[in-house]
Amino acid sequence: MGKLIYAANISLDGFLEDETGSFDWSVPDEDLHAFWNEHERGIGTSLYGRRMYEAMRVWETDDWLVNEPPVVREYAGIWRNADKVVYSTSLPDVSTARTRIERRFDPEAVRRLKESSDSDLSIGGAGIAAEAFRHGLVDECVLLLCPVLVGGGKPALPRGVRLDLELLDHRRLANGVVYVRHAVRNAA
């Protein structure tokens, strides 16, 4: 059985992006990219909302990667090797391999996917992650706290949800980012 892991770069004040929609303050350096590569190696299926999928699909093509460091090119391969499920009512089709669209978030279908998976699953995108949290589907949170305050924007964690967490791991990365990993104690 796979665990569903919510993982994100967030500002110290708890946002995925600032009030203008920018997340340039969380662009990873090589050390942080290496962290994400290691994390993503254990993921067999990624669940995305439409906007997160649209941001991530850049990893499908190689043309822009030519002059990037090896750690960045490595991430592209890791991303391509995972299955992807995109939850969207408006996206007409997908442009990446190993990807399918679901028109609505079905908690029971996600439970079955977790139960039948030999590897962990990730969930990305604030809206879809909030749904997973509300339905007790998230087993772990991996948060990379960036040393910046953005003052507002899109919250990284859902409002109106109370969950008890247990710290599993933490460390400081060279660039000042702090990694924390928590288990959700009362996950379904």
Number of strands: 10
* Adjacency order of strands in the biggest sheet: 5-4-3-6-1-7-10-9
Which sequence of SSEs, written as H and E, runs from N to C? EEHEHHEEHEHEEEE
C-alpha-based Rg, rounded: 16 Å
Q: Strand portion, in percent?
A: 25-35%
Q: Give the overall pLDDT as a whole number.
A: 93
**Low-confidence parts:** none
Shape: globular
Describe the structure.
The protein is of the alpha/beta class and 188 residues long. Helices cover 27% and strands 30% of the residues. The strands form 2 sheets. Strands 5-4-3-6-1-7-10-9 form an 8-stranded mixed beta sheet, with helices on both faces. Helix 1 packs parallel to helix 3. The longest helix has 12 residues, at 30-41. It is globular. The model has no long low-confidence stretch (mean pLDDT 93).
Describe the secondary-structure layout.
Layout: E1 4-11, E2 15-17, H1 30-41, E3 43-49, H2 50-56, H3 70-81, E4 83-87, E5 99-102, H4 107-116, E6 120-124, H5 126-134, E7 140-146, E8 154-155, E9 165-172, E10 178-184
Parallel strand pairs: 1-6, 1-7, 3-4, 3-6, 4-5
Antiparallel strand pairs: 2-8, 7-10, 9-10
Helix pairs in contact: 1-3
What keywords describe this structure?
188 residues; alpha/beta; two-stranded antiparallel ribbon; 5 helices; 27% helix
TL;DR?
This protein has 188 residues and is of the alpha/beta class.
